[in-house]
Amino acid sequence: MREDPHRQDPLAPAFTVRERRPTPARPTLDLLQPSQAQPKALQPADLPSLALIHDLRAAVVTHHHHRQ
Q: Which of 3, 6, 16, 61 lies 20 to 30 A from 37 at CA?
């Protein structure tokens, strides 16, 4: 019976430390992006940019292959 609480004690601080690491990172991200205030808008903006880059790479590959 005493072994169970002793095992939970060392595990408890480990989880608290892991939870403390992401918590300070969240406020920093919020402080870094106060003017935008729309983190979701960044995700859709990155998707089209990646699509354009992929299209450009495909165009370059097709153009290079056409030269051969």
A: 16
